[in-house]
Amino acid sequence: xxxxxxxxxxxxxxxxxxxxxxxxxxxxxxxxxxxxxxxxxxxxxxxxxxxxxxxxxxxxxxxxxxxxxxxxxxxxxxxxxxxxxxxxxxxxxxxxxxxxxxxxxxxxxxxxxxxxxxxxxxxxxxxxxxxxxxxxxxxxxxxxxxxxxxxxxxxxxxxxxxxxxxxxxxxxxxxxxxxxxxxxxxxxxxxxxxxxxxxxxxxxxxxxxxxxxxxxxxxxxxxxxxxxxxxxxxxxxxxxxxxxxxxxxxxxxxxxxxxxxxxxxxxxxxxxxxxxxxxxxxxxxxxxxxxxxxxxxxxxxxxxxxxxxxxxxxxxxxxxxxxxxxxxxxxxxxxxxxxxxxxxxxxxxxxxxxxxxxxxxxxxxxxxxxxxxxxxxxxxxxxxxxxxxxxxxxxxxxxxxxxxxxxxxxxxxxxxxxxxxxxxxxxxxxxxxxxxxxxxxxxxxxxxxxxxxxxxxxxxxxxxxxxxxxxxxxxxxxxxxxxxxxxxxxxxxxxxxxxxxxxxxxxxxxxxxxxxxxxxxxxxxxxxxxxxxxxxxxxxxxxxxxxxxxxxxxxxxxxxxxxxxxxxxxxxxxxxxxxxxxxxxxxxxxxxxxxxxxxxx
Length: 601
Known about the structure:
Layout: H1 6-20, H2 22-44, H3 48-63, H4 65-80, H5 84-114, H6 116-131, H7 138-145, H8 149-173, H9 177-185, H10 190-219, H11 221-225, H12 231-242, H13 245-273, H14 275-288, H15 300-320, E1 339-344, H16 348-363, E2 367-372, H17 375-384, E3 389-395, H18 400-406, E4 410-417, E5 421-427, E6 449-451, H19 458-470, E7 478-480, H20 484-496, E8 503-507, H21 511-514, E9 517-519, E10 532-538, H22 541-544, H23 546-553, H24 559-572, H25 577-587, H26 590-595
Parallel strand pairs: 1-2, 6-7
Antiparallel strand pairs: 3-10, 4-10, 5-8, 5-9
């Protein structure tokens, strides 16, 4: 059967939409970004513990005293692990996505409930939206909206829309037909029947749909973190990329606390606003003879008063906070607070160079944001102008596929290190394996696996497309896609047990200083010649930030400097990269003025 070029047709359709509807995508991005920034500003303004108190008062009013105490304790824990800002960013994303989703889902559900034909058309569409893997939605999201929070919100909306539509339709269809007929018999118009009979009675089911929308939105925050969505999802993605168990647990626990709060509060709110829910609660109170102390709920007026008092306190604390004046002054303040966005992938030299420049630029008065992204998303963000600079482009060989696709929209600021090499490495205790050709016929010894890194990396493409075929290894070995930290974790485990293992590595890398490894020779040159590690910027960056562009063009590090910086970051620990850079710069003070020289007076 001939192959249907469905993928090529999809690419053509995406190119057409991108070319002809870019104005629409820009408008959507502007609206969504405005909503997100507005909600984020409101949630991030109060002092964390004061806002935790506001959320606790809401929980006390909706569910009782015990719920209020647990809510305050949970959010205080989030603040204590240093993830309050990320939690509020995630809450902003979920609230914006939920609001937009409900604006679309409720009318569609009502329409489907009142028209069997519309319901029949919507059903397969909703099935498609709900069963498509959620990560797939990020691909067009990145293409149409670039990296950042917008594609994460859009993907969340698409993924969470089906349950909102289905539950609204189900709730209206479940309303007793006799009640609808009675309303129509008394001359009620269809519009009033919907607003005064069907929607109030369907409200419990609709609120269950709202609950499902919120939970699905929270399930998307980690995926959104892969494209620069930030928040707790970004923290989880960073923990995955660096195999940081502590950070992953803290961020995961924060998501659980946020999810439990939203789940319990939306459920209680549904009972409060529903006539049926209020009637059931009244019957329960009558049967139990009143609420116990931990079930005590204040009157709405008292709850509102408490929230207002806490909000005023938050405003007073914000006003007394003052402005920070700990930045550079005088000749060192070259940046004057201008912003620079750095993107990086979790490769050691990329982490080291990115946080080195983050520290240098902040010492020169710039506001610097460093975001970890997947490699494809990083190049897409650079080309779209949403990321200013990345310092870990391996050219002209390893990342050639990305340069061919996006090179016209990027500026090459030059190589700061080279030449590099990519290789397969094995522990030195494995005898008789000195070159790639020696792997042939020994797959059982290595369990038929070569442990790889990120599947989007250029080294992985070369390994699969050229190396395995060139050395006749394609039928024997399977390349295990994963991540750089995952590869290093497997190397550490196998090395400790003296087990055979073959991993994708590159030079320079600190692993060669930590383990006794052997680089397998590549007599055919299948991996290609060595690359230079380049700094790339978006088009126009040199005109916007000429000082930074000039510094990056002159940037150079020796192998000893780079590997010592990487080793310092490894010693300091995950999540403390900038602290490690500061300690390293204290030992290399001359590099500050060498790499980022101040302009002459």
